[in-house]
Amino acid sequence: MRAGFAKDTDQLAQNPIAPPYLGPYTIPILIDDIKQLQDFNMTRGTFFTIDASGMGDDWVAMLRGQGVPFLILGITNVLHRPDLDDLLFASAGMIDRLFDQIEAVEGLVVESEYVWLPNFLFDPHMGYFSSQEKPDQLSRGAVWRIGFGLFQMALTFRQEVIPTETYLERCRQVLQPGQIEIGYSPEESAAFQAWSGEQYQAAKKNFVEQRADPERGVLDYLDRYGNVVTQSVPRSNDDG
Amino acid sequence: MMGKLSVTLIDVGWGDSILIESTSAAGQTHYALVDCNDTSTQRSSFLFVKRFLERKGFDLTLDQRIFDFVLLTHGHADHANGIQAMLSSFKTDWFWYPKSVDFGGFAKLVSYANKYPQKVKRHQAVDNTKLLPDLGDASLHVLWPPYTASGVYDTNNENNNSIVLVLNLGQVSFLLSGDCEADNWPQIVPGIPSIPGLAVFQAPHHGAVNGVFTPNGDTPWLDALPTGIRIAMSSHIRPHNHPAPEVVEELSNRNIDPFRTDLHYHLTFSTDGTLDGNGLPKVTEHWSHS
User: Which end of chain B, N or C, is less packed with Cβ atoms under 10 Å?
Assistant: First the structure.
């Protein structure tokens, strides 16, 4: 489905939206793991989706610029931009706002999914991405954007529709040197890293609150001498 | 009535998803989940757990907390995808995970736990100093990762932050290993002889070479295991050939015939925590296909 972000129909009626950005669509992929095995040289990259477990109504999808009302019934959507106005996740706040906006709707959750991408796609000498980018940006948590065609192919491989060799061959055929189907996204790498850091800070704050809450509490632990230390005694530097 | 402990390696096609059921001698049953690897379009693990609970007589339309704990062994996608749906649908008392380097997918789970206490009552990073509450009559012990004052144990290789968990009922124990690579096991194996009746051992990292062999070819956990132990693995030939042929050969050389989810599908090991007539841990295996 070539769709922009959905809005409810009331809001749409009151505030008609400009025609959405129709492409070329690119999907942000967060590097998760890099395999450099004898017979498997691929990088696992995750992306975020909206999963609808229940049935929702009053939504509209933008299909090639036309609004199409629909009911949600177990649909999965790939998140590729923060809103209709912005193309990139440029800040932690944009990420948080989008996730909160989605999960405020009963039955919708933001989930993560992954695809495998051949490591040769990240080779700067192949010319699949612009030359100022460096291979050391292929590190865990870094964000790369990949083109819609490549993403579709990667999903097909992920879903085991095509075997490994076919996938690799198609990647080689479709991605001609100089054709930018993949690119490092420094702005989004920084934004997702900042957003991740904020979640861990929130977890540390939660740990303190949890420890003070008799209904919840935290785990006891053994100190370096093997003595049990109860949850009421914070450990130096122990943030949970 | 004796207590009972069952561990099921759900065949999810990729990665890990392990369901634990512990029924106490008093007849109360407790449930837990270690890892999950569902995709948004293939919810193998979710459906397995849902059907399992329905067969147990749960009315899943009721507002209830199913899991005593959900544990994420480490922050890799093939162990974490789908956990949020599990937390959202079945709710948990505890959500445990190791400290991990900054990463969006893992951070999303932590974020969810922060924001939805009605789904996740409490959550916390764990290491081998933490004392986990019992699951029914079964006790839980974390062997890995070690506590480090600086926080994350390994900032370069997330596999090495994997939580290694021992479940013990009476005189029988099962060990779950996540993707904890062989390099770490020389530090873990000195504790293995003190585990009562270790009967089932999950081969680390789905039977990958680096889960079994150190870079210089040593096999620390294999060398430390008691004779007759059952080795199980959440294995999947696609996409990158787990278990590795070298691992299969090494196990074969030692006359070990492992239990594999790619061959046996869903694998369940159960025990009542007692020894058999020969003084060996009493364990039964069940699988859905052979």
Answer: C
Asked whether residue A103 is domain-assigned, the answer is: yes
User: With an 8 Å Cβ cutoff, is A37 touching chain B?
Assistant: yes
Alpha carbon distances (Å) from B87 to B16, B21, B118, B203, B205: 16, 17, 10, 26, 24
Q: Which has the closest alpha carbon to A179: A24, A42, A44, A61?
A: A24
Residue A2 half-sphere exposure toward CB, CA atoms < 13 A: 13
> Which is the CATH superfamily of the domain at B4-287?
Ribonuclease Z/Hydroxyacylglutathione hydrolase-like (3.60.15.10)
How many domains, in total, are found in chain A? 1
A237: in domain: no
HEC profile for B205-245?
HHHCHHHHCCCCCCCHHHHHCCCCCEEEECCECCCCCECCH
Residue A95 covered by a domain: yes
Question: Phi and psi dihedrals of B157, rounded to 5?
Answer: -130, 105
- Are residues B107 and A206, on separate chains, in Cβ contact within 8 Å? no
B104-115 helix and A92-103 helix, angle to the nearest 10 degrees: 50
Q: CB-based contacts of B195: which residues, under 8 Å, 6+ apart?
A: B141, B166, B168, B173, B175
Higher-confidence position of A55 and B179: B179
| A201 touches B at CB < 8 Å | no
Scanning B89-108 for CB atoms below 8 A from A yields 89, 101-108
**A55-84: per-residue pLDDT in tens?**
666 667 766 777 777 776 666 789 999 988
Distance CA B153, CA B146 (A): 7
Q: Calculate mean pLDDT across residues A28-41.
A: 87
Nearest 5°: phi and psi at B248? Answer: -60, -45
Nearest residue in B to A116, CA atom: B239
Helices (H), B77-217: 77-80, 83-90, 104-115, 185-188, 209-212
Distance of alpha carbon B234 from the chain centroid? 10
Q: Is residue A240 part of a domain?
A: no
Domain regions of chain B by residue span: 4-287
Best to test chain A binding among B86, B100, B108 (most A CBs inside 10 Å) = B108
**Residue B77 near residue B158 (C-beta atoms within 8 A):** no
The answer to ipTM > 0.85 is yes
Residue range A187-230, pLDDT digits in tens: 999 999 999 999 999 999 999 999 999 999 999 999 889 899 98
Q: Domain of residue A214: give its range.
A: 7-229
pLDDT digits (tens, 9 = 90+) for A153-189: 999 998 888 999 999 998 888 777 767 788 888 899 9
Q: What is the pTM of this model?
A: 0.90
